[in-house]
């Protein structure tokens, strides 16, 4: 295990490019595959790429805000004290790894955006308390919690097919979450990963090779700490008094809290990405107390979202080529062709993991694979609910080595994708086992 961990860490450190270059390389791979597999011309592939390029703008803004608002909230005195209190549960590097993995996994089961931010922020506080912990592995542990998101309360596929009038309702009807999220196979996978992932990451700490350590192995405060706030002047202009007014922050904060209460009253526990951002934003405004302190924190936060802003359009272009050329359909149909009633969920999971490299969005991937896998399941008599969840778990599985979703966490952590990806490869290889067992035998 030590040799394997060191090998992947060494290979990733040496050969994995920056996340932006990774997106460019994927673009060329899909471009060439589209021509070779589907017969599309270079002009057509270029058209598919350009047409899809801006299709993730709204989502890119959501993910940018999850980083910004999470950073703002985390740097309020109240939340700093809370995270510091939780971090006291870790007194050694091993305990630090276990704590961060477990908390991040629980948070991702509640909501994926919430989990990404909470895991990264807690990891920073734990690194302050236990500076001897490998910071790269600690952040990889925080990211490993994201593996569980699609089996939890914000899983886009099980929630979508449980909603009336979803686009496959005429084929499978409305599938209640008791058959997906709360099914025996999904509970087995979630519980197994929840228990074993912290232990795996703890084991990776022992297996890593100290010779592979880089500067990123040690937490550096300058990469994650906000700028110091200038002292408030005794004599202020009217404009400066407004900037330092606690009343204004309190009033707009109360208005935000009123909407949050209204949202949950009307929609139940609907913790979507927009309401998570809304909660983070207005709690940040209230806890910073004055607009001036809030805006200082905003200034520190926005420098972390450059990678998201510039890279997500390239992934949208990749998704455009995958869907419009029919390449994603060709990949999915090949796995259907070799499946039986018993093995279809497993092969669906594997195919979804491959497609996820190029369509790294749960909802987007379901729109691509759902219309292929569900009719196939009905035709050969496979469990449709399990097949749908197989797509969900495939999407979550290869997120471990797809930089798309790691970008928010890396932005908060002040790391590059190569810093954590060697460990994430080991997490990917291990997690294949419990997910496959759940899909095959439960």
Automatic annotation (TrEMBL):
<feature type="transmembrane region" description="Helical">
    <location>
        <begin position="20"/>
        <end position="41"/>
    </location>
</feature>
<feature type="region of interest" description="Disordered">
    <location>
        <begin position="215"/>
        <end position="238"/>
    </location>
</feature>
<dbReference type="InterPro" id="IPR006160">
    <property type="entry name" value="SCFA_transpt_AtoE"/>
</dbReference>
<feature type="transmembrane region" description="Helical">
    <location>
        <begin position="247"/>
        <end position="265"/>
    </location>
</feature>
<feature type="transmembrane region" description="Helical">
    <location>
        <begin position="94"/>
        <end position="125"/>
    </location>
</feature>
<feature type="transmembrane region" description="Helical">
    <location>
        <begin position="420"/>
        <end position="441"/>
    </location>
</feature>
<keyword id="KW-0812">Transmembrane</keyword>
<feature type="transmembrane region" description="Helical">
    <location>
        <begin position="53"/>
        <end position="74"/>
    </location>
</feature>
<protein>
    <submittedName>
        <fullName>Short-chain fatty acids transporter</fullName>
    </submittedName>
</protein>
<feature type="transmembrane region" description="Helical">
    <location>
        <begin position="137"/>
        <end position="161"/>
    </location>
</feature>
<feature type="transmembrane region" description="Helical">
    <location>
        <begin position="308"/>
        <end position="327"/>
    </location>
</feature>
<keyword id="KW-1133">Transmembrane helix</keyword>
<dbReference type="Pfam" id="PF02667">
    <property type="entry name" value="SCFA_trans"/>
</dbReference>
<feature type="transmembrane region" description="Helical">
    <location>
        <begin position="333"/>
        <end position="359"/>
    </location>
</feature>
<keyword id="KW-0472">Membrane</keyword>
<feature type="transmembrane region" description="Helical">
    <location>
        <begin position="271"/>
        <end position="287"/>
    </location>
</feature>
<feature type="transmembrane region" description="Helical">
    <location>
        <begin position="181"/>
        <end position="200"/>
    </location>
</feature>
